[in-house]
Automatic annotation (TrEMBL):
GO terms for molecular function: NAD+ poly-ADP-ribosyltransferase activity; NAD+-protein-arginine ADP-ribosyltransferase activity; nucleotidyltransferase activity. This is NAD(P)(+)--arginine ADP-ribosyltransferase. Belongs to the Arg-specific ADP-ribosyltransferase family. It comes from the Eukaryota. It catalyses: L-arginyl-[protein] + NAD(+) = N(omega)-(ADP-D-ribosyl)-L-arginyl-[protein] + nicotinamide + H(+). It comes from Setophaga kirtlandii (Kirtland's warbler).
Length: 265
């Protein structure tokens, strides 16, 4: 049965704006990485595989990037079972703050993948690369629909390719042509370099320019019109309300005075 795209309001869509350092500290102090790998047998194996792949990659870390940013990108692009588990969890974890807190076991991965896309995108824009990319995404065995003129979000991390032919290898039942302005080209951080991958974050909003049902499958054309996040620094906010907020504030002031970007973990 067809799936109708909408604004994916149950998605956990945090952009972590203005709280990157605090989030890193919170994840470190709460030992979230250890908790997440303990809860998922695929997680550590894939993380290590991504670490090894990065050692062979010719690309170095960008300024503001930690190892965990690069590993999260590499691990995600491996298209493993962890990739689909993360996406399924992301698309439903925004049902409520409580659900995110107690049931979302990808807090570490979500943070580092989200901010890695942002860092990569900022760097690409500063280098005078395209502000927006036209990309393609093929989906197998699912007929996705959308109303022309409506606004939609993927509500999950979405892999796309510069190459239409590459996208169609993943499926042709639904084929997206997307103009993304928040997605980042993976370049040396992708496990499958031939895919020419661009990764779109969950919070980007698209206008549905056209929707066609053809004999080959459904064809959608989406154009970026901004971003929307229901959640903002959720983990830090919950922690602030638990403590007095003093320590978080003190560390934020300290890091801004020192002008450092803390790379923990």
């Amino acid at each position: 049965s067809p799936i109708l795209m909408d604004m994916a309001l149950q998605s956990f869509d945090d952009q972590y704006l203005g709280c990157r350092e605090e989030m890193m500290e919170e994840l470190e102090q709460g030992d979230y990485f250890q908790k997440e790998i303990a809860a998922n047998k695929d997680y550590l194996r894939l993380w290590k595989k991504a670490q090894e792949a990065l050692l062979k990659s010719p690309v170095g870390l960008l300024r503001e990037m930690c190892d965990s940013h690069a590993i999260a990108l590499m691990a995600y692009t491996m298209n493993s079972s962890l990739h689909s588990q993360l996406n399924w969890a992301t698309s439903t974890a925004g049902i409520s703050p409580e659900h995110y807190r107690h049931n979302f076991s990808f807090k570490y991965f979500h943070f580092y993948l989200t901010t890695a896309i942002q860092i990569l995108k900022e760097w690409q824009s500063s280098m005078g690369k395209h502000k927006c990319y036209e990309v393609h995404r093929g989906v197998k065995d699912l007929y996705i629909e959308a109303k022309e003129g409506s606004r939609v979000r993927f509500g999950r991390f979405t892999s796309t390719s510069h190459l239409r032919s590459e996208a169609q290898k993943f499926g042709n039942e639904t084929l997206f042509t997307v103009t993304t302005c928040l997605g980042a080209a993976m370049q040396g951080f992708s496990y499958h370099t031939s895919e020419k991958e661009v990764l779109i974050p969950p919070y980007e909003i698209f206008l549905v320019k056209s929707f066609l049902q053809t004999q080959q499958g459904n064809r959608l054309h989406l154009r970026s019109v901004g971003n929307y996040s229901k959640y903002q620094c959720q983990l830090v906010e919950a922690s602030r309300s638990k403590n007095s907020g003093y320590t978080a504030l003190a560390s934020a002031i300290l890091s801004s005075v020192l002008g450092v970007s803390l790379c923990l973990a």
